[in-house]
Amino acid sequence: MGNLSKPVGIGAGGLDLLMPMHLRLDPLGEIAGCGPTLRKLFAESPVRRPFFDLFKVRRPTGIETPAALAARTGVRLHLTTLDGGVSLRGVATPKHEGRGLLLNLSFGISVIEAVRRHGLTDGDFAPTDLAVELLYLVEAKTAVAEELRRLNGRLERARRLAEEEALTDELTGLRNRRAIDQALEAVIATRRPFGLMHLDLDFFKEVNDSFGHAAGDEVLRAVAQVLSRETRTGDTVARIGGDEFMMLFPGLSDPAPMKRLAARVIADVARPIPFGGGVCRVSASIGMTLSVRYDRPDLARMLADADEALYAAKRAGRGTAVLSEGMRPERRRDP
């Protein structure tokens, strides 16, 4: 390795400054001196202790004695400490006048872990050591990565909030038309049975005309609370415009539960709603249909049938519910 194996003569103070991770070994392999940074790796001072009691040379193999180490001066060494398992790299060279060895060590790629484990700072490295620049780069990268993580988190929360707002009716907090359209398309795609309920308020115009639009808004919010209370967690309840609401019931194939639900909703909606010292009164007409009543559920057809059933309920006197017959095979006629 050329000049690396020639004896050198530098005072201990100069070695501490230029090589803060050096070791000075006497001819018997005992540690005669240690750089200040290397000293921090040990609970007790390594000075006056045999080198091979504290370090293991992993590469090149076969270096287990002071003589074997002295025979490999100028060769790149890979070592670990025996107590803490710190990985080190280094090179040995004869000391001035051949009285032992001088080893200069470094952390190599394990410098980041060493800094964290032993609380090292840039003052623990030689001013010319590239480890200092590496530490700065790592700190900068960590700071940038953390800021990007926070920014991505804020953007993701803003995206979810925007999506939620785009699917929510601002007045009532229920889903809106867009949301229930998406839910209907999704349940059709799963081929699971489902029920559909279309609700329209009766006498809502009279409330607006008599008490004003603020009263109408209060009525809509009260009806929304009724619908939310009466439906299941997995159901979709939406205000689709004005005083119209729609409910989707995934997994429902029996008309009996939907009829009972409609009766409860109609009874609750009919209760007086206090407003501004007065009382608002409305009722609910409901049209219903079930996907199992169709050979192949067609969303447009089902929506039309629920709407037709709704107006049949209004014609029947309002405040009632009508179930559509759907498009069962026995209802089809050959052309």
Automatic annotation (TrEMBL):
Keywords: Coiled coil. InterPro entries: DGC-Regulatory_Protein, GGDEF_dom, HNOB_dom_associated_sf, Nucleotide_cyclase, Rev_trsase/Diguanyl_cyclase. PROSITE patterns: GGDEF. It comes from Cereibacter sphaeroides (strain ATCC 17023 / DSM 158 / JCM 6121 / CCUG 31486 / LMG 2827 / NBRC 12203 / NCIMB 8253 / ATH 2.4.1.). SMART domains: GGDEF. Gene3D superfamilies: 3.30.70.270, Haem NO binding associated domain. Residues 192-326 form the GGDEF domain. Residues 141-168 form a coiled coil. This is Sensor diguanylate cyclase (GGDEF).
